[in-house]
Amino acid sequence: xxxxxxxxxxxxxxxxxxxxxxxxxxxxxxxxxxxxxxxxxxxxxxxxxxxxxxxxxxxxxxxxxxxxxxxxxxxxxxxxxxxxxxxxxxxxxxxxxxxxxxxxxxxxxxxxxxxxxxxxxxxxxxxxxxxxxxxxxxxxxxxxxxxxxxxxxxxxxxxxxxxxxxxxxxxxxxxxxxxxxxxxxxxxxxxxxxxxxxxxxxxxxxxxxxxxxxxxxxxxxxxxxxxxxxxxxxxxxxxxxxxxxxxxxxxxxxxxxxxxxxxxxxxxxxxxxxxxxxxxxxxxxxxxxxxxxxxxxxxxxxxxxxxxxxxxxxxxxxxxxxxxxxxxxxxxxxxxxxxxxxxxxxxxxx
Length: 350
Known about the structure:
Keywords: Acyltransferase, Amino-acid biosynthesis, Cytoplasm, Methionine biosynthesis, Transferase. The active site is at residues 134, 288, 317. Homodimer. By secondary structure, the chain is α/β, with parallel strands linked by helices. It has 12 helices and 10 strands. It has helices spanning 52-55, 108-121, 135-146, 165-179, 193-207, 210-216, 229-242, 247-258, 269-274, 293-302, 319-322, 324-349; strands at residues 2-6, 11-12, 18-19, 23-29, 39-43, 72-76, 126-133, 150-157, 279-285, 307-311. The strands form 2 sheets. The protein has an 8-stranded mixed sheet with strand order 1-4-6-5-7-8-9-10, sandwiched between helices. The protein has a two-stranded antiparallel ribbon with strand order 2-3. The longest helix has 26 residues, at 324-349. 44% of the residues are buried.
């Protein structure tokens, strides 16, 4: 079911700025059981939407590990995204005009806070599994630290505790590309699309690997001097994003990713990770260029009793969306062990 929650109060951002008329678009699949203990909450990545059964096929869906027959699955479109939640192309209630670049900057903590508001609205106090990859993993980690809901099992995939200088440099390069498109400052819904196309091309180089391009874009002949498959692929992917997204949301969401640092407002990064109370599984991708596996090992080493697992995938960072069979096996075993531990604990306290 797809719907929108209209928050009746003023939403205060981490930076102190305020948003009126906050709307959160979300989708649910399956039914909440009587005990309200079958909630699976998925946090989506940069340009995805609330339809997790579509973009995480194989892990979510009928006959998948997370299926609507057994679980109540929730996925909310994040603040700033253009799939129904309040974003830079929403109307500013103060001026009556679209926000564009007057939209307030927000952080990963703000994304987590909106999830918490929605969960409260849905009368969900306990989440059986909170899962996210990449930017989604950053949200899931921050939400678990907020302690506004009980997160029984936390699954962090291809993500980190603080966004790296390397990741920020990639994001800034993309924003530089967007800002060279003068239409970005023209306050029109399709502003900055040429720049967004270039930004997407830059991003793809961080999502994929040398091996992936060699496997999918290698020329079959030796006499070409132009019109290469790899060049066509970059153009195609850039145009594809421009048809479904906007430059303003992309600009703000990339800045939100840069803001990710669980140590902000806390004693330290490691001290913050030690505060995670959920049964935690961290999954890394061995040849991830954007979120190197060292970042996931860091999470697992500093979250109490966290389990760590890795995936070998030629597609690099995008492997968290592609290698769903491997994820199903790893996560399925983790949840079975978690359930067994819970049963043993209940027997000991009985």
